């Protein structure tokens, strides 16, 4: 069988390692599904530093720790994909289930839908480990994206700006300048390096030659891959960081749009709609259009230069700058920057 190669056509391959930068936050959020993990300014500033440390560890010690990375990623992908499947399982199980939780001792109590979603997720992860198929890897990557965006929140525009600008500097440094220090592009090196299959390693120790020969190397689900339209033997890649980090910003502005609409409708019932287009355009649509244009620009740049590009170099300005400009024009910048969802009690008028 002809071995498929992976192409660096999409600029987002450089953001593949961003999965490592938020694995810790994901585990915190997934460990407590009833509560949300809200990032503060210190965490936003530390995340690029943690991503750099994780990147260096993977670059320097990948051969020694690749099995640990593969097992750790498989566990996290199982939990995240179970979270993605849970609403569907609840929909199908609800008519024939009372919703009573089943006890599993020290593991806790779970509903039938939660058990089914976990079993399905565990089965998919096992099949991915045995086959290494790119469709299953994409499914697990989607689960990681959905779980992270659903369980992690940005509280303000200040934290959003610190996070995105910090990751922009991180992305540009490791793509453009790491080769001057390490004589190779660290980001691309780690992003395209497959890990040994844990099944193959265990089979080798047990002298099961059939499994050793058939076990494929695993490309960790830190990216979405799909066959190139020009060459079916090559894969285009989109890093999860290029989905999750702007996705957190989109979730923040969507929440603010909903909050502002509820505040306006309750305070100004019966007033005519805003007079100009800027006032009517929502922050969410502005950021979404900016994300599309930024990703399009990054793709064109990678095609022109024929090299991996730091996608956040294009995504951050195209999403953040229009948002800041629109917030300034609407007069919401000060409030969005600090505590946009802080409810200020209205003082009661004193009777004379």
TrEMBL record:
GO terms for molecular function: aspartic endopeptidase activity, intramembrane cleaving. It is found in: Endomembrane system. It is a multi-pass membrane protein. Pfam families: Peptidase_A22B (PF04258). Keywords: Hydrolase, Membrane, Transmembrane, Transmembrane helix. The chain crosses the membrane at residues 12-32, 44-62, 68-89, 110-130, 136-154, 161-182, 281-299, 311-329. GO terms for biological process: membrane protein proteolysis; signal peptide processing. The keyword Hydrolase applies. One of its GO terms (cellular component) is cytoplasmic side of endoplasmic reticulum membrane. PANTHER family: SIGNAL PEPTIDE PEPTIDASE (PTHR12174), SIGNAL PEPTIDE PEPTIDASE-LIKE 3 (PTHR12174:SF22). Belongs to the peptidase A22B family. This is Signal peptide peptidase-like 3. It comes from Lymnaea stagnalis.
